[in-house]
Write a structure and sequence with these properties.
By secondary structure, the chain is mainly alpha-helical. It contains four helices and two strands. It has one domain: Arc Repressor Mutant, subunit A (Orthogonal Bundle), CATH 1.10.10. The chain has a two-stranded antiparallel ribbon.
Length: about 120
C-alpha cells in the first residue's frame, strides 16, 4: 500500500485465481471486471469493491495475470471475458488448493478438453 492506496502487489494472485476457479466449478467459465454482475457472468467487483480498488488497478492486476499466463482475456477496457488458463489451474493445483480428485472431473467441462477415456478396470 502506498499513500493509503492499494497497488497490484497488494492483491494476491491466488485470491483472484481461487475466486475464478470457484465460479468455474459452478459452470461460470468467464468473468468480467466492471461493476455489473449478472447470475451468468460474475464480476471481479464482487471480489474487489470499487471503493477500495479503482478500475485502473483491477485492469492492471488482470493484465499482470495475463502476462504471467495464468488468465486469458482483454484489458483494453471492454468487459474482459477473463478465463483461467491451464497454467492458472496448475498453480492452484501445485499450491495444494485443488485436490486432484476435484480437478479431474471439472476439466472435462470445457469444450476444448477431450472426453475421458473409459476405465479398463471397470
Amino acid at each position: 500500500m502506498k499513500k493509503g492506496r492499494f497497488q497490484c502487489k497488494d492483491i494476491p494472485a491466488l485470491f483472484i485465481l481461487k475466486w475464478m476457479w470457484t465460479n468455474r466449478a459452478r459452470g461460470l467459465v468467464r468473468c468480467t471486471w466492471f461493476q455489473q454482475s449478472t447470475p451468468d457472468l460474475p464480476s471481479l467487483r464482487d471480489l474487489l469493491p470499487v471503493e477500495l480498488f479503482p478500475d485502473k488497478l483491477v485492469l492492471a492486476k488482470m493484465g499482470n495475470l495475463i502476462r504471467r499466463g495464468l488468465v486469458s482475456g482483454c484489458v483494453c477496457g471492454c468487459r474482459g471475458d477473463f478465463t483461467l488458463t491451464d497454467a492458472g489451474i496448475s498453480i492452484l493445483q501445485r499450491t495444494g488448493w485443488l485436490a486432484k480428485s476435484l480437478l479431474r472431473p471439472l476439466l472435462y467441462l470445457t469444450p476444448s478438453s477431450p472426453a475421458p477415456s473409459p476405465d479398463p478396470a471397470s
